[in-house]
Design a protein that fits this description.
By secondary structure, the chain is of the alpha/beta class. The protein folds into two domains: about 55 residues, no CATH class; about 240 residues, 3-Layer(aba) Sandwich (Rossmann fold). It has ten helices and 13 strands.
Amino acid sequence: MVNVPSYSPIQHLEIGRLKFFVSNTPMKFLTAFSYPKNAFFKHLLSLLVMITFLGTSTSVNAQEGEWVDLELVLAIDLSSSVDQNEWELQAIGIAEAFRNPSLIETIQSSAPNGIAVAVVQWSSNNSQSLAVDWTLVSDAASGRALSRKIKRMPRMVGGGQTGIYGAIDFSIRQFKNSGYTSWRKVIDISGDGQANSGARPGTIRDRAVDEGVIINGLAIINEEPFVDRYFRDKVIGGPGAFLMRAEDYDDFATAILRKLIREIGPPLASPLPYGPIFSESYPLTSSAKSHVISADAAILLPVSWTMQ
């Protein structure tokens, strides 16, 4: 019978020339085995214990925060091109959407764990603000609670240029402090113009996609008729990303409701494939990545995502 040495609060494992310090919990795993005389097997067993220890720590960290089916940042353009009336139309449109029975029904059917929503206001590249902190929406009551917060939020960004790069960068950082955990993170960015402040948005969009964040867009075309094409080619990105178009700010409320239903709807039920197939689509010419547009829904989608 092999004598097992007594345990101290902290034990040492030597693997090659590296020394690891581990607590008694993983070390107790060793008591079920006698110490093998062969050094190779001893080191192998030690390595397996360390992998188990580190894997346990990683899984605990991954479970931090309340689990939801979607974390959604609504990023609202408040640059100088957006006057007070247009700002109010955006705020009221989003607030009323979360009172709409169709949206609440979509959340309850497609996101049984609820969704976490934050609202960001942005203008120039260095001008952003978290206007409404992360709020859980899972039913009509929580939808009304978020609606009240949005209606009461002040305009925290006063004019400036259009810094889409900064808006996306700021929105990405909000996920790190959301207090929630999900497999799907989306930035919903709305605007009425092309970027004219800060770096080009393509690079930060690509970084967001690399970090697992999807960027969808809502282009308001009353100022620039082709801003939807710009958003399509330079702003949106990620699996299933899409763009919706509003003719003007009066059309914003209808567009944002339909957009939220699209974002929260059936794709949340299963990770792949993203996005429905639109039967009535026709090509939209572009020198960049090829996309198609659904005329009846005013949604722009990459061709590769509609062919699944």
